[in-house]
Structure formats: structure tokens, C-alpha cells
């Protein structure tokens, strides 16, 4: 696959209590990904950027919340989340301690 496309797939790591829990228990990492990303593209992007071995990818679409801005009703954008399972012995650490 095209490396330029793979670099644009991963938008950001999704850091939350649940993502920390799955990281500890199941050796998974959670990413916010492009809305048109496929599982093979996500797998290749993670392996390219972080030099780890990926076991599997689960993807879900997150619906945007309805929000109110004063008297105006609005809605946040929908987005896509990917749970990436890593092979044993591999890990990605987003917190770099110096």
C-alpha cells in the first residue's frame, strides 16, 4: 500500500480509562483513525509507524454527541475508533518519561 496513505490513517491515540484497561489486560492499543480506513490499512499503518507486530484489528464507528451551544442545537462529528491487538512481547508506550 501507499506509504503516504498509511501515514494519514492514524489520527491520534485515544486515551481514556477504558483504553488503559484494555492495554493492561489484553495488550491492545486504541486509535482514532480516518473514517474510510480499513482493517488491513490500519494494521499496516501501526506496523509501519511503531515497528510492532499486530495480531488483529477491531473497528467501530462512534456517533457524534448532540450538543447545545446557547440557543443553537448542534452535533459533533462522527468518528472511527480502532482497537489494535499486539503480539505478545510488543507494546506501544505513548508516555515518554525523561
TrEMBL record:
Cellular component annotations (GO), alphabetically ordered: ribonucleoprotein complex; ribosome
Presence of the UniProt keyword RNA-binding in the record: yes
One GO MF term: structural constituent of ribosome
Domain of life of the organism encoding this protein: Bacteria
Membrane-crossing segments per the record: none
PANTHER family: 60S RIBOSOMAL PROTEIN L23A
Name of this protein: Large ribosomal subunit protein uL23
Amino acid at each position: 500500500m501507499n506509504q503516504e496513505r498509511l501515514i494519514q490513517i492514524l489520527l491520534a491515540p485515544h486515551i481514556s480509562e477504558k483504553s488503559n484497561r484494555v492495554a493492561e489486560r489484553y495488550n491492545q492499543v486504541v486509535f482514532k483513525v480516518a473514517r474510510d480506513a480499513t482493517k488491513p490499512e490500519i494494521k499496516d499503518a501501526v506496523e509501519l509507524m511503531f515497528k510492532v507486530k499486530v495480531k488483529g484489528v477491531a473497528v467501530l464507528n462512534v456517533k457524534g454527541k448532540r450538543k447545545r451551544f446557547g440557543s443553537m442545537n448542534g452535533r459533533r462529528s462522527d468518528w472511527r475508533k480502532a482497537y489494535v491487538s499486539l503480539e505478545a512481547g510488543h507494546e506501544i508506550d505513548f508516555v515518554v518519561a525523561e
